[in-house]
Design goal:
The protein is of the alpha/beta class. It is built from ten helices and eight strands. The relative contact order is 0.15.
């Protein structure tokens, strides 16, 4: 199942804040997609707990508060730490968190067999374990109060095994399945879940990989994707942003693997060499 927001009315800022506020938690909030989520949520009337490993998180949060007039709480944590959820729980004591966004993520571009043990472990810890831990902490109070939302920032690579980002692709599929399954379990408790299968976006991390865009992949601004995804949150399930992703989702598994693998390895030819 996929969701598109076109042609449907989306909740206004007041309705959104009443349904998912007063506080949201966003992991990986200092830059890129996480920063876009934070800005959008503040614009919709929520205060935001900004979680990031970067020491810049407080300065980023202060600038947003000054500009957008919403409160922030900056929490500098590495989500691979065994105690990160406990530290987050302590930081959020007394706050009513109505929305959690599992956005923190890391990637590895290249052949799977070229990954080190440490790279494999960190990728799974950030993209899978931390996402599950955030859900386990954030969702129970939402179920108890009868409203809330949980968003997983996934990727188009979750739609099929994708060469060049093999383990990343697998971890992003984990996030989709987790969000969909939890959504079914809590659908009668007023809690919405959404897995966002994001397209290639113009983020610092993506630009740092120096992707080759000459073969037709257009980098999308994160703010555009985030706004549309949050409009679709009430619909639940898996959200696909464009017709290209819809086509991949509807293709045979073998064709989807071929298409995703060809496009991704062509995008990063300097990282990927088949042998």
């Amino acid at each position: 199942m996929s969701n598109q927001s076109e042609g449907q009315s989306s909740p206004g800022p007041t309705d959104f804040a009443q349904r998912y506020g007063p506080w949201a938690v966003v992991t990986g909030a200092a830059a890129g997609v996480g920063l876009a989520f934070t800005e959008e949520l503040m614009g919709r009337g929520l205060d935001v707990v900004m979680v990031d490993v970067s020491p810049e998180i407080e300065a980023v949060g202060a600038e947003l508060t000054d500009r957008l007039g919403r409160s922030h709480l900056a929490v500098e944590i590495d989500v691979t730490s065994p105690t990160w959820i406990e530290l987050l729980r302590q930081a959020c004591a007394g706050l009513s968190v109505g929305l959690a966004v599992a956005n923190a993520g890391v990637s590895f571009v290249g052949r799977y067999l070229d990954m080190t043990e440490a790279e494999r472990a960190r990728l799974v810890a950030v993209n899978c374990t931390a996402t599950a831990e955030l859900a386990s902490w954030a969702i129970p109070p939402m179920v108890e109060r009868g409203r809330g939302g949980f968003v997983v920032m996934s990727s188009g690579s979750a739609l099929a095994g994708t060469a060049g980002v093999a383990l990343y692709s697998a971890t992003k599929a984990f996030g989709v399945n987790l969000a969909e399954a939890i959504g079914w379990e809590v659908k009668d408790h007023g809690v919405d879940t959404l897995a966002v299968c994001g397209p290639a976006m113009s983020t610092p991390a993506m630009r740092g990989q120096a992707p080759n865009t000459e073969f037709g992949v257009e980098m999308v601004e994160p703010s555009t994707v985030v706004g549309r995804a949050l409009d679709a949150l009430g619909e639940g399930g898996r959200w696909l942003p464009d017709e290209g992703m819809e086509f991949i989702a509807g293709a045979s598994r073998a064709d989807a693997v071929e298409l995703m693998s060809q496009s991704t390895t062509a995008m990063f030819p300097h990282h990927y060499r088949s042998e």
